[in-house]
Specification:
Layout (H helix, E strand, L loop, with lengths): L1 E6 L4 H17 L4 E6 L13 E4 L6 H5 L4 E5 L7 H4 L5 H8 L15 H10 L6 E5 L22 H11 L4 E5 L11 E3 L9 H5 L7 E5 L2 H8 L5 E4 L4 H4 L5 E4 L36 H10 L3
Helix pairs in contact: 1-4, 1-8
Length: 302
């Protein structure tokens, strides 16, 4: 038996993007079984082009089964440190494939829910339709009471979140997706993921399936929305849609000034977590004009 071993590290959104890379690896090597070793293994279980999935830390005898004395190709490099990614020349999936010298044939992320998972999503999230998904805070999940409540580099400004809810709360049931330490926006039903009571990855992503509107940030749900082919409004504070975004979405970027210092940066401009001392905007800056965001939301097709 011949194998391709695909190792994925990093966050949940990066794993969603990795499903496109996995598909391209299988296309390039259809005669080999594709074995995925990753952190967020649930995403790969239903994919037809993946033969086996192993969660990091649950890999008994992996080396002897798939590598020692085997005909295995290893795909385990880090795409974030490629020239194309650091210089913002290619979207993440394309720079990932170029790193492996594999062709890009338009692969996009894929998330597949089986019928049971779809019905569960409809009975749970769909009961309050029509509904809007408002992703205000993302990134690293800290235990309750630890970690910052807001990361300026990626999170939605609280004032804007309140303005969106005030405008649309009478028409839509609004689910606010945020980490446990984030501020709850009045008029929303918060959806949080905690260590004590945690949604599975598929339950979390299934929130998007029957939604009518989606206003997201650079975090896992914008990748998942692309995988479900659900156009969304995505706000970009410090990161770039050129490398992390999708043309399917309406991507709205802030205008960052050029006369700021980045003392802690080496290969990237802003840290994902948003170091407070590197906040580049002058005092009183409004990152997004509400009317621009409202217009984009109104133009979304369900």
């Amino acid at each position: 038996m011949k194998y391709c071993i695909f190792n994925v590290q990093g966050g949940l959104g990066k794993h969603v993007a990795a499903t496109a890379v996995a598909e391209a690896i299988k296309k390039a090597h259809p005669d080999r079984q594709l074995i995925v070793h990753c952190v967020w293994n649930e995403l790969f279980l239903n994919l037809p082009f993946v033969d086996r999935v192993y969660k990091a830390g649950s890999t008994q005898y992996f080396y002897q089964n798939y590598i020692e004395g085997r005909d295995s190709l290893i795909f385990a490099n880090e795409p974030y440190f490629t020239t194309e990614h650091i210089n913002k020349q290619l979207p993440l999936v394309q720079s990932w494939l170029k790193m492996y010298n594999l062709p890009y044939n338009g692969e996009t992320p894929t998330i597949i829910l089986n019928d049971v998972q779809k019905q569960a999503a409809k009975s749970h999230w769909g009961k309050n339709g029509p509904y809007m998904v408002l992703h205000t805070n993302g990134g690293i999940i800290y235990p309750v009471g630890q970690g910052a409540s807001y990361s300026w580099a990626r999170d939605m400004p609280l004032e804007l979140a309140n303005q969106i809810v005030e405008k649309y709360k009478d028409k839509y049931h609004i689910y606010q997706v945020a980490h446990p330490n984030a501020t709850v926006v009045p008029g929303t039903e918060p959806v949080t993921v905690t260590d004590q009571k945690r949604l599975s990855d598929m339950e979390y992503f299934s929130l998007l399936l029957y939604s009518d509107k989606r206003v997201l940030i650079d975090s896992s749900l914008q990748h998942a929305a692309a995988a479900f082919n659900l156009p969304s409004v995505v706000l970009w504070n410090g990161t770039s849609p050129k490398i992390f975004g999708y043309d399917l979405h309406t991507n709205i970027e802030t205008t960052k000034p050029h006369n700021f210092k980045l003392p802690g940066s080496v290969f990237f401009d802003f840290d994902f977590t948003g170091n407070n001392h590197e906040y580049p905007f002058p005092e009183g800056t409004v990152l997004y004009e509400p009317e621009t965001v409202f217009k984009a939301i109104d133009c979304l097709n369900s």
